[in-house]
Write a structure and sequence with these properties.
CATH topology: Jelly Rolls
Number of strands: 11
Order of helices and strands: HEEEEEEEEEEE
Strand content: 35-45%
Distance between the termini: 70 Å
Number of domains: 1
Radius of gyration: 20 Å
Helix content: 10-25%
CATH architecture: Sandwich
Shape: globular
Oligomer: single chain
Structural class: alpha+beta
CATH class: Mainly Beta
């Protein structure tokens, strides 16, 4: 009988120790969801995060819908999810990492609708400025030019 109680108690303790691990895996602390809506006060957003990772962002695609190269390293999962409620004629996504060399990939809606950006003209921070942003869900990766290069950043999105 004592062995049975010990077995049940041991199983219970082992199961309880797995709960925090499962909760940790389910959370993505770097991922922010935000919604922009045409005709409302919510037409811009600022989110923060950290670049880095060893996942080649070029594996998402080598070129975006305009032929721009897609590059950098980050996490396999997107850093941010942007939902657009309504069509935006223009949007600008700008990274401010205080001088780190960053890249940016915006995917969606649909799997072939991808926009990429990186620093240009002596600016190291990535920028994506484009037109015809359809309503829907967009996945956003903020990466670094070199693998595993961690840098804090602020991403601003505005029309």
């Amino acid at each position: 009988m004592i062995k049975l109680y010990r077995a049940i108690y041991g199983s219970l303790i082992a199961g309880l120790t797995l709960i925090p691990a499962i909760a940790t895996v389910a959370q993505r602390p770097n991922q922010d969801h935000f919604i922009l809506a045409v005709g409302s006060s919510q037409t811009s957003a600022i989110v923060r995060g950290s670049t880095g990772g060893s996942y080649s962002l070029a594996s998402i695609t080598n070129r975006d819908r305009h032929g721009n190269p897609c590059m950098g390293y980050g996490d396999p999962e997107p850093d941010h999810i942007m939902t657009l409620e309504g069509e935006f004629a223009q949007l600008s996504l700008k990274v401010n990492s205080r001088g780190s060399d960053t890249t940016l990939i915006v995917k969606g809606p649909g799997k072939n609708n991808i926009r990429c950006g990186f620093g240009k003209n002596n600016h190291r921070d990535a920028v994506v400025q484009d037109s015809q942003w359809k309503p829907g869900r967009y996945e956003i990766w903020v990466g670094s030019v070199s693998p595993n290069q961690r840098s804090g950043y602020r991403l601003s999105v505005q029309k």
